[in-house]
Amino acid sequence: MGMTRAWVLHPEIKSDRERRDPEPALAEAMALGAALPELEVVGGEVVRLPRAHPGLLFGTGKIAELKERLSEVEIDLVLIDGSVSPVQQRNLEKEWKVKLLDRTGLILEIFSDRARTREGVLQVEMAALSYQRTRLVRAWTHLERQRGGLGFVGGPGETQIEADRRAIDDQLNRLRKQLAKVVKTRELHRAARAKVPFPIVALVGYTNAGKSTLFNRMTGAEVMAEDMLFATLDPTMRAVDLSTGKRIILSDTVGFISDLPTQLVAAFRATLEEVLAADLIVHVRDIAHEETDAQARDVRSILTELGVDPEVPQIEVWNKIDLLEPADREASLTLAARTDGVLAVSALDGSGVDALASEMTALLDDVRMHEELVIAHADGRRRAWLFEQGVVTDERQGEDDTRLQVSWTARQQAAYRAL
After folding, report:
1. Does the keyword Metal-binding apply (predicted)?
2. Given a cut of 50, is residue 146 above it in pLDDT?
């Protein structure tokens, strides 16, 4: 099957007070399209509108102009960087004689292509069905697909099998039951991890900020790290010994993006719960990106939506300083050094990563509590665990038991009680 030729349109609607800067938004939308391997993004443009037309989104003159352009460059698929109603989609497809995807549909397609774990696949399928249900049902042959995508772009979806809402609801119920089993297994794994008294550090950030490159730098793992939006979807976790000697569990999470479809925020809550369980959140920013401040605001907004405890410590990492011009790089390094909780690094060449490890260690060395424990002589397992953790400050043997003085963190105390 050949490449699908795509054209990207970013509608800049003047009446929308929350609208984004159009040029960077278009560039991001084109990068989103390029993230799908079967798409060839031929070009794109910003279309300025006073307001959205309810039936066609664009005015009739603009539709005719675009129809001619799309025909000239032989476009198969139009990507609209925004929300398109089912009526608008049907009318535009009829006018232009092409397929059409809005931002939500495109992100769902990318997520489906990236999902690797069983949980990730189920989450995407549920999000896609919820999305399609609101659109009075288009093709949803992705349920019997042979490729990774959802069938919106090409392949099996071209057969356009029609399904009614009851069929979608039945499928959603079946997926929920499957997901419940997967989540239960995940909870068992998390409970097992809770007994390991190593703090969890979650890497979060806008998509393509360099989280996976930093993860690989710190763990020696080979996680997919490409200059591509949503290169990582399912969370990856590794135990890692920092250069300071402290052992942590590092989690690489899915990248955030502005206007993330609400279906995905809900569906990926379980995937992102590693962030909710984290002892430390490391917010990785692409400091060389022209929209870095706006991206950072989007990430903070999504963390708030997820319900992250504001008391959980955070480090802001200004990544990709190697891409800055020398003068800008020096300015960023100086500003980061003067700002609490901010570090400038290059995950690619490793500069600043040791300083990041030291900052992580400082924040994770919790206030220690002092306590006396009484352990029966027969309970050698607990005694051995305490010595392995290095928390015993004094030991006195009695006739029937052993009295241990310990200095430990709240996490170690909880892990000990879970033994």
Report:
1. yes
2. no
